[in-house]
Amino acid sequence: MAYYGISTNLIIFLTKKLHQGTVASANNVTNWSGTVWIMPILGAYIADAHLGRYRTFLIASAICLTGMGLLTLAVSLPSLKPPPCLDVNKGNCKPASTLQLAVFFGALYMLALGTGGTKPNISTIGADQFDEFHPKEKAQKLSFFNWWMFSIFFGTLFATTILVYIQDNVGWSLGYGLPTIGLAISILIFVAGTPFYRHKLPTGSPFTKMASVIVAAVRNWRLPLPNDPKELHELGFEEYAKQGAFRIDSTPSLRFLNKAAIRRGSSDSWKLCTVTQVEETKQMLRMIPVLICTFMPSTMLAQTHTLFIKQGTTLDRSIGSHFQIPPASLAAFVTISMLLSVVIYDRLFVKIMQRITKNPRGITLLQRMGIGMILHVLIMIIASRVERHRLDVARQNGQVGNGSGQALPLTIFTLLPQFMLVGVADAFTEVAKIEFFYDQAPESMKSLGTSYSMTSIGIGNFLSSFLLSTVSSITHKHGNGWIMNNLNASHLDYYYAFLAVLSAINFFLFLLISKFYVYKAEVSGSIKALADELKDKKLKPFSEKHTHT
C-alpha cells in the first residue's frame, strides 16, 4: 500500500506540484522505482551474510517508516513546495528550489533504501515457513507465491483507488499520511508473530562463495578434471547436517567451474571449493540469462505508472455530473484483473494442466513466464492502436496544439483494455518470476535468488528511462518528437509500437534460452511424490474401470 500509494500517482505530483515536464517527471518516477527494485540485492546480501532475514527486515522496516514520515512532511509543509501554477507548459512555472527537491527526493530514496531490506526478505521468510521435506507443506508452498501476490494486490487496490482519490481530491498530506500509519501497523503485526516463525540463520556471503568458486576455477584451469566426480573435493553428509544445509552432487553443466573442486593439497578457499559450493554457484549463474530476458517485461510494466497515466490526464474523466476519476486510479484495474487471474490460474488452470502434463505446477515456471511475455507484446500493440485513435480524436477536434489542458471528448475508459491485460500478464510473468528465482536458488542463497526478481523490475525501470530519453532526444532532432509535454502533438503510438517490437525480439530470445535451461535437482523428494500422486490419480480410475469391465 505504501509503495504503490506513492509510485502510482508520483508522476502527477511531480508535474502538478513540482512543475516538471513529461520526460523529466517520467524519468524521475522510473529512476526512483528502479532504485527501489534494485536495492534488494544489498538487502539480500546483508540477510544471507550477516543479520539473517528477520533482523534485516525489522531494521529495513524502521528505515521505510522514517522515509514515509519525511515524505509526508515534504508534501504537507508549504515551505517545502513551490507556489501553485496552473499553466500547462510547466516551463513557465516557478521550479522547485534545491532545498525542496533535496527534502522530497531524500525522503523518496530513504524509502528506497528501506525497501531494499524488506522486499527480498519478507517473501523469503514466508516461504521458509513451509517444510521442504514434508509433501503436504511442499504442495502448499507451490501455491504460496500465488496467494502472496494475491495478498499484496489488496494493498495495491486500496492504494490505486482510495489513496489516489484522496491525493487528487482531498490532499497529499492525508494521501501520504494514511500509508505511513498503515506501514506502522503492519510492522507491529509482523513483530507480534515472532514467536511462531521458523527462523533460518545466515550462512555467509553468497557473493564471497560465488567469487571464490570462480577464482579457484580460473587458478586451476590448467589442471585436468578427474573422470569420476567423486574424486572432487566434498564434505561428508554429517558436516552439512550440522549446519542445517544440503549437499549437492556434481553436474556436467558449466564443467569449467568443476575445476574449483580439484584437490591440490591446499585448504585455501580461494584455491579449493567443495562440489556443493560449485553447484550453488552454477545454480545462480544459470539463472542470469533468464534474468536478462525479464528486463523487457519490466520495462513494459513501467509504462503503467508513467505514460499510461499521462495519457489519462488528456481524456474525459467524468463519471456522472460530479465525479472525476483520478487518472492513476486506472491502475486499480491492473490489480483487479491480476487478482482474478491469479485465482483462476491457481484454482482452475493448474488443475486442468496437471491432468495433461502430470506436473504439480500444471506448467513449468518458464512456460508460465513465456505466456506473460506474449501478452506483453499484445499489450503494446493494443496501446499503440488506442493511442492512434486518441490522436485522431485530438485532430478531429482541433486540439493538437491544445495548451489549455482541456480534456478530449473521449472517455478515459478507452485505456481500460491495456490496463486489464497488464494484470493478466502479471499473473503469469511476475508470479512465475518470483517463484522461479526463489525455487531455483540454492537453499543458502534464497534471499539473493528472490532479489533477482526484484532486480529485474529495477533494471526494467532504468531501461525505461534510457529508452524514453533516447527516443525523445533522437525524434526531437529529426523533426516531430514522439514524446513531448503536449501529448496531443506527440507520437506515443510510434513509441508503443517500438516497445512491441522490442518485446517480440525479447520473447524469441527467451524461447532460445528456455530451451537450454536445466532445472536444478530437488533437495527433497516432495515434488516427485506429488507428481507420482498425480499419475496414480489418473491410473486409479482406469484400473477401477478395467476391473469392473
TrEMBL record:
Which Pfam families does its entry note?
PTR2
> Can you tell me where the transmembrane regions are?
54-77, 97-114, 144-166, 178-197, 287-308, 328-345, 365-386, 406-428, 449-474, 494-518
Its record classes its membrane topology as: Multi-pass membrane protein
| Molecular-function annotations in GO | dipeptide transmembrane transporter activity; tripeptide transmembrane transporter activity
- In the record, which residues are listed under signal peptide? none
Looking up CDD domains in the UniProt record yields: MFS_NPF5 (cd17417)
Q: Name one GO cellular component term.
A: membrane
Q: Which InterPro entries match?
A: MFS_trans_sf, NRT1/PTR, POT_fam
Q: Which Gene3D superfamilies match?
A: MFS general substrate transporter like domains (1.20.1250.20)
- Assigned keywords, A-Z: Membrane, Transmembrane, Transmembrane helix
Instruction: Give the highest taxon in the source lineage.
Output: Eukaryota
Q: Where found, per UniProt?
A: Membrane
Tell me its family.
Belongs to the major facilitator superfamily. Proton-dependent oligopeptide transporter (POT/PTR) (TC 2.A.17) family.
* Name under which the protein is recorded: Protein NRT1/ PTR FAMILY 5.2-like isoform X2
**Which organism's genome codes for this protein?**
Cucurbita maxima
